[in-house]
Amino acid sequence: MSSAESRLINREMSWLAFNARVLEEAQDPSNPLLERLKFLAITAANLDEFFMVRIGGLAQLCAAAETGKADRQAAELVEIRRRARDFITAQYACLRTLDAALAEKGIHRRTPEQFTPLQARSVQQRLENEIFPIATPLAVTSSALPAVPALTPCLLVHLRPNGRSGPRGRFAVIPVPRNLPRLLALPAEKGYEYILLETVMQAFLDRFFPGETVEESTIFRITRNADLEVQEDLACDLSAQMQNVLQKRKSSAPVRVEITDGTSDALVKFLTRTLDITEAEISSAPGPLGLNVLFALGTVPYFDALRNPAWDPQPIPQIRPGEPMFAAIARQDLLLYHPYESFDPVLRLIEEAAADPDVLAIKQILFRTSRNSPVVAALVRAAEQGKQVTVIVELKARFDEARNIEEARILERAGASVIYGIKRLKT
Question: What is the pTM of this model?
Fold first, then answer.
């Protein structure tokens, strides 16, 4: 090799190549259909994180770099975006294939034009009772878009008062409510039929804007820069600093704006102006935005033939049925292989320790936990019973920071001593 740089693999290109290998699992016809759909959803979730962290960080480096280096990084960013667009094209080609194959098996994504009379009544009822009361239109000024949530589909609507002609009008944005499921099941005589929540809202926009005419509308989705770090050397309160970072993520600069195919040039220009982005940061999609929504289809009942058989973690043969964990590990050391062997012995050990009067202290490290974590619940019980509970809760577990802060507060209220990670290190 002629130079040191030619011997290096670009980190971002390597990551895209990795995600392409995940997409190959979605394209593989030997995999069950719903498993292929799950792999496609995984690639979408991966790509969201890629833009939030890798593209967001690279954009910051370009802005801060010296002229020569900035030019090189800018060229690199252009190439990364080009490859990402090619990857997105492959994702939606895969989705078209899967949609057709799923339709043959009885799973259909519908549009309002395809509704049966029963489906139309059902959707109208849900619109009035569930969607309309909580969906909130936001007025848009000519210079700025409201701070809409990241990774949430939103409707951009161009309006004109009834009875007035000409180009004058106003714009509004309606974020799709995040506390409603994006997949709405439809009544069907057989199989499973569904429609996307944003499709329903777009079809009934006149319900949101009485007395005005909807000139045009589109669906868009913003990905914001999440590569924001705590200034640990300046942080006297790491928890407060991390909460500040989480707050900043909500309004950080967009690194990608997805729009549906067919969006007019006028709406594209409006988005670029109000979001202060270039058209290079706009990504057009010939299908639903945020394909990770497809995870929900993986749990549709009565289609087990389209999934891999469930695999249950294996019991540990060295642990006798009903035997206390302290007795089992007093007899011999145990080495557990996860996820192939059950995690239950670990949970049992912590739960038994929390209730055992001979246990004086429990020391635990938590990096990521599930919602309603049984580990946290056991530690809370132990602290409430007067045991000395010390927990390191890692606040720098990316995208789990908010949950970890919440778990830390629960532990502190129970009387546990909580350490918020270690400066300059991830634990």
Answer: 0.84
